[in-house]
Amino acid sequence: MVGLEMRVVKYRAVLLFGAPGSGKGTQGTILGTIPGFHHCACGDVFRALDYGSALGQKFAEYSARGELVPDDITIELWSSQIANMVQLRRYKPEIDLLALDGIPRSVRQAELLQQHLDVHHVFHLSCPDRGKLVDRLKRRALKENRLDDANEEVIRNRLSSYEEQTKPVLDFYVRTFGPDIVTQVDATQWPYQVLRFILEHLEDSQRRARSPVFAGSQSVPA
Ligand code: ADP
Known about the structure:
By secondary structure, the chain is of the alpha/beta class. It has helices at 3-6, 24-32, 42-47, 54-64, 71-87, 107-113, 130-144, 152-166, 168-177, 191-208, and strands at 11-18, 37-41, 97-101, 117-126, 182-186.
């Protein structure tokens, strides 16, 4: 192999970070409709698995208990999904900014992802009111019929594993890149207000940055 093929590609990414029910998926889905963004939700990657396969069964087991799937399996599955998206040209890393939601969810995952990601920013969708998160998840359970939102005990488990395993990821990024890498966003606002905040922040950094957040030249969508 020569030249280009040997080059290690790191995906430019912003991370949508927050507790279950904080609205990462809502924001990621909207961002994914904007040209220049590609949204990838780790939970969706798992839910797309065939539940008859060994991996699909493993996911069902962990998520039904409100637990995280083990790190190595998660990163392996995620990287092969991203590689598929690149191959299908649904995600164009040279143009698109990756909006990641639901990954990394542990410090180990963040470490493993360092070889794949060029993290531009981490938006922490913060909602200190646990009761509000529980209500949102229960409402979602009714709409989406999700195993992991099905009862209050599972929901409480998910919120605890967020506090214990996922929240330390914020410190990991602050230690690695400095405090400016993380921005707190008030997740109790209306979705359009959260979206506006994120977009204004990205626009601001695009204006200031030496290495722009958005790579391609301005283009008019076809
Ligand atoms: P939410 O939108 O409520 O944050 P997700 O849809 O992202 O939830 O994830 C659903 C479930 O999938 C999690 O409870 C967990 O079992 C599994 N999962 C998703 N992402 C990860 C990850 N990065 N690491 C381990 N498990 C994950």
